[in-house]
Amino acid sequence: ARRAELAAFTGPGRTADGHPVKLLLNVGEGDAAAGGEVDAEGVGLFRTEFLFLDRTEAPTVEEQRAAYGRVFAAFSGRKVVVRTLDAGADKPLPFATDESEPNPALGVRGYRIAAGKPSILDDQLAAIAAAAADHDADVHVMAPMIATAAEAAEFAGKARAAGIGTVGVMIEIPAAALRAGEILAEVDFVSIGTNDLAQYTFAADRLLGELGPLLDPWQPPLLDLVAMVATAGRTAGKPVGVCGEAAGDPGLAVVLTGLGVTSLSMSAPAVPGVRAALRRRTSDDCAARADLARRAPDPATARARVLGG
Ligand code: PEP
Ligand code: MG
């Protein structure tokens, strides 16, 4: 019965009063091309790490071009946001990261690798641009682990020089959330990675299950940072997405929409529940619930307030 109820809603994400919220997919290895069958507006996070795993050196430009092309073909006519390599910390790679770092989550990971090993990023951007030219998906690119507006500007310069038209960065470090306006001045969009943003906001390793309560995406301080970024996006007139696990929780999707987030990217199975939750709420109701969640003293209260009544 619940499946039938969810299946009653199809098509683009929107609230009961018609406010659009793009519903996008997080894809990685294997599920990427199959995701083309899903009723979603495209891909909000294409994790490219899988291509680089179990190797002693980076894949060639041609190899990458073919792999990205398979995903772009599956999403022809739709948006695909490719994230450049996010190696390090929970995703170590022998040729890119230094396993002797004492604190890998605080080390040379994500975009930071480009400073010492620029060819990995340069080759990847060249491959993405070449694959985009081969297909008619609407290809966007974004960098992980951006901390400053200067890094965002540097990445945007490289991506545009490679010929990629739409360039963004992830907001997953609190400093970047605090300065989202300056970052948005350099790029076309941002996407909030709530998994890492929670880790760095609470100084709690995302791999440690016992710290789960601190990493709860309903944490009001995390919602405060999302609100700051969404407000900066509205001021700049640029999109602000969420692509961390939070985006796939129907109750949180309502809250994130109420905070002003413009797209939600999630695993394919989460899409119907999020779509249905948004269709049942007006944008004013989303905003009121977002306010209740932010004012809550803890995640359990935030959840209870939003889901009740
Ligand atoms: C995140 O940090 O929220 C995110 C989407 O990226 P990943 O989980 O791959 O670090
Ligand atoms: Mg991340």
Task: Give a short synopsis of this structure.
The chain is of the alpha/beta class and 309 residues long.
Q: Roughly how many Å is the radius of gyration? A: 19 Å
What percentage of amino acids are in beta strands?
5-15%
Q: Sum up the overall morphology in one term.
A: globular
Mean pLDDT: 95
What's the β-strand tally? 8
Report how far apart the termini are: 22 Å
Helical residue percent?
Answer: 40-55%
Residue ranges: pLDDT <50 for 5 or more in a row? none
In DSSP terms (H or I, runs of 4 or more residues), the helix count works out at 14
Structural class assignment: alpha/beta
Strand order of the largest sheet: 1-2-3-4-5-6-7-8
Largest sheet: 8 strands, parallel, barrel
Q: What molecules are bound to this protein?
A: phosphoenolpyruvate, magnesium ion
Secondary-structure element pattern, one letter each: HEHEHEHHEHEHHEHHEHEHHH
Could you outline the blueprint of secondary structure elements for this entry?
Elements lengths: L1 H6 L14 E6 L3 H4 L7 E6 L13 H14 L4 E5 L29 H4 L1 H17 L3 E6 L5 H13 L4 E6 L2 H5 L1 H5 L4 E4 L1 H9 L17 H17 L3 E3 L7 H10 L3 E4 L4 H9 L3 H13 L3 H9 L2
Parallel strand pairs: 1-2, 1-8, 2-3, 3-4, 4-5, 5-6, 6-7, 7-8
